[in-house]
């Protein structure tokens, strides 16, 4: 499905699925979602600092509207800061 897609598009799909999962959970009623990513392009799309590519623009805009209407926080975390957590996350997947 994601063959030959730019990495930021794949990151967007992951964000979109995380958002849907959160909104369908009981946490959505009482908690605020904080989205962190090391993909600066994705963060720029979410914060509307950069216009997404045409093929996914409407989907990104839809997600951005949901994020802003709920007051969710979107942050860029440099990959360097994820060096310790990345292996833990991958170990949890296997």
Automatic annotation (TrEMBL):
Domain of life: Eukaryota
Protein name: RNase H type-1 domain-containing protein
């Amino acid at each position: 499905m994601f063959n030959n897609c730019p990495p930021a598009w794949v990151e967007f799909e992951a964000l979109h699925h995380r958002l849907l999962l959160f909104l369908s959970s009981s946490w959505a009623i009482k908690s605020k979602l904080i989205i962190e990513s090391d993909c600066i392009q994705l963060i720029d799309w979410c914060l509307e600092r950069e216009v997404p590519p045409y093929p996914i623009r409407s989907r990104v805009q839809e997600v951005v509207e949901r994020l802003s209407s709920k007051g969710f926080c979107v942050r860029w975390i440099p990959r360097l800061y994820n060096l310790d957590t990345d292996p833990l996350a991958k170990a949890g997947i296997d």
